[in-house]
């Protein structure tokens, strides 16, 4: 089938009037009552046009209501010799519908205007050879693009095409820089539509309201969220150290019915939306306690306080029931550029609660740490895994620490992978009399610029 390609290449300002083309398509007339007999024939399936550009492979005849037009793709007919292919089609039709089968092809001319062309066809027409639009993420009514530098001159045309062609998209934005502010929110440029950034989306059966321009959200992380949530049960207590708007704690409470969640984020708007999403998903407010703190301070101050309260209360119940409870604790760190810098704060976490050592031994405390591993040259997957293990052990300075789960998550960019390492907090580490100065850690992060590149450069190489 003919396309718009080559007619509009290089367009950087959308001119809808130029997206017009007259298509010429071979066709055969067949009796309307015979359509059901021929639609599954190989010659029909393999050579007709696709259902696009406002056309269907089988259409009503304009001059005879008892006939249908079967429209063919010129390019497909030519692949194995046009005359040979046409002859095979006619022969196959005669074998099925007999004398009523057509013997000659006609040609249908149809003018297709801008409104009828698909977004894919329009994008192919606009972009020069060698440039390809890879797609976008959609968050409610917002289409979020992450365009490479070489395609940026065409960003406004791309944005308007997406806005025009997809009725449920009202706002189109492009990520313009790395996530580099204290709230991990990227800068973005409006390409088309209205500057309305408050939206609602769904993930793993729950609804999330947010201002996409002011809080962090990545729809590509849904599997990462779901994977961790599946580790919880009704006896789990979850500390989400960088919770955002709730993609871990909300399903943990709603779907896994966990005992309690403590959600923290430095961005007050994230916590505001988390509270809205608690109501939106009809979750009991008593199940999730929220905080607006630096992650390091949350680990140092909130986790030991809440842990001791739960443990002491549980011990009292144990004394009455004479049964060991199944309570288990989980700390989630999903700020990949910085998560590893928080691990040393767990040293001496419970140093003021030594009486809880026996309780700690029978109630596991899990840490789920998400982070990036970056290579300076092409490496095998095993290299990334080895470095992920080495980095965690080196950060906590326990060379032989057992890592129960070292899980590859995704390729973030060339030579850059994301991992999640889950391990049980070692008893001697948690009750160590040594501790880390969180002020020094916070200052060091500021000096480093909180950048992914600085953090990744610390990865220890494994030979």
Automatic annotation (TrEMBL):
It catalyses: guanosine(37) in tRNA + S-adenosyl-L-methionine = N(1)-methylguanosine(37) in tRNA + S-adenosyl-L-homocysteine + H(+). Keywords: Cytoplasm, Methyltransferase, Mitochondrion, Nucleus, S-adenosyl-L-methionine, Transferase, tRNA processing. It comes from Ditylenchus destructor. Its EC number is 2.1.1.228. PANTHER family: TRNA (GUANINE(37)-N1)-METHYLTRANSFERASE, TRNA METHYLTRANSFERASE. GO terms for biological process: mitochondrial tRNA methylation; tRNA N1-guanine methylation. The keyword rRNA-binding does not apply. It is found in: Mitochondrion matrix; Nucleus; Cytoplasm. It holds the Pfam family TRM5-TYW2_MTfase. Monomer. S-adenosyl-L-methionine binds at residues 225, 265-266, 294-295, 334. The keyword Mitochondrion applies. Residues 444-463 are annotated as: Disordered. One of its GO terms (molecular function) is tRNA (guanine(37)-N1)-methyltransferase activity. One of its GO terms (cellular component) is mitochondrial matrix. Involved in mitochondrial tRNA methylation. Specifically methylates the N1 position of guanosine-37 in various tRNAs. Methylation is not dependent on the nature of the nucleoside 5' of the target nucleoside. This is the first step in the biosynthesis of wybutosine (yW), a modified base adjacent to the anticodon of tRNAs and required for accurate decoding. It comes from the Eukaryota. Belongs to the TRM5 / TYW2 family. This is tRNA (guanine(37)-N1)-methyltransferase. Residues 136-427 form the SAM-dependent methyltransferase TRM5/TYW2-type domain. It is an enzyme of class 2 (transferase).
């Amino acid at each position: 089938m003919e396309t718009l390609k080559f007619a509009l290449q290089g367009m950087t300002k959308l001119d809808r009037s130029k997206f017009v083309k007259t298509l010429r398509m071979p066709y055969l007339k067949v009796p309307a009552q015979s359509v059901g007999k021929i639609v599954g024939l190989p010659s029909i399936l393999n050579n007709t046009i696709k259902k696009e550009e406002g056309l269907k492979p089988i259409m009503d005849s304009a001059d005879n209501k008892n006939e249908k037009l079967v429209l063919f793709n010129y390019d497909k007919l030519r692949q194995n010799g046009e005359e040979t292919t046409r002859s095979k089609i006619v022969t196959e039709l005669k074998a099925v519908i007999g004398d009523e089968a057509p013997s000659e092809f006609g040609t249908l001319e149809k003018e297709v205007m801008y409104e009828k062309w698909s977004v894919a066809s329009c994008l192919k027409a606009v972009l020069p050879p060698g440039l390809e639009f890879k797609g976008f993420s959609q968050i409610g009514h917002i289409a979020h693009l992450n365009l490479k530098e070489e395609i940026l001159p065409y960003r406004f045309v791309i944005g308007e095409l997406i806005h025009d062609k997809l009725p449920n998209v009202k706002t189109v934005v492009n990520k313009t820089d790395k996530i580099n502010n204290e709230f991990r929110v990227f800068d973005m440029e409006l390409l088309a539509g209205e500057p309305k950034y408050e939206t609602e989306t769904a993930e793993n059966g729950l609804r999330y309201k947010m201002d996409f321009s002011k809080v962090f959200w990545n729809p590509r992380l849904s599997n990462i969220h779901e994977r961790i949530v599946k580790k919880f049960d009704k006896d789990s207590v979850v500390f989400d150290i960088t919770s955002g708007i709730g993609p871990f704690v909300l399903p943990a409470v709603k779907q896994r019915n966990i005992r309690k969640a403590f959600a923290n984020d430095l961005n007050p708007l994230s916590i505001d939306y988390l509270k809205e999403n608690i109501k939106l998903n009809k979750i009991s407010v008593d199940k999730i306690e929220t905080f607006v703190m630096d992650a390091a301070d949350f680990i140092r101050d909130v986790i030991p306080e809440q842990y001791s309260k739960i443990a002491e209360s549980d011990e009292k119940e144990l004394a009455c029931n004479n049964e060991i409870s199944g309570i288990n604790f989980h700390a989630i760190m999903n700020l990949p550029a910085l998560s590893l810098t928080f691990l040393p704060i767990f040293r001496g976490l419970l140093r003021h609660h030594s009486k809880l050592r026996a309780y700690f031994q029978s109630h596991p405390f899990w840490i789920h740490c998400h982070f990036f591993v970056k290579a300076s040259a092409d490496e095998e997957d095993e290299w990334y895994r080895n470095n992920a293990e080495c980095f965690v052990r080196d950060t906590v300075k326990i060379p032989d620490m057992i890592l129960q789960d070292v899980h590859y998550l995704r390729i973030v960019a060339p030579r850059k992978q994301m991992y999640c390492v889950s391990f049980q907090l070692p008893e001697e580490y948690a009750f160590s009399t040594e501790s880390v100065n969180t002020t020094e850690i916070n200052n060091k992060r500021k000096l480093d610029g909180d950048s992914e590149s600085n953090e990744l450069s610390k990865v220890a190489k494994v030979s």
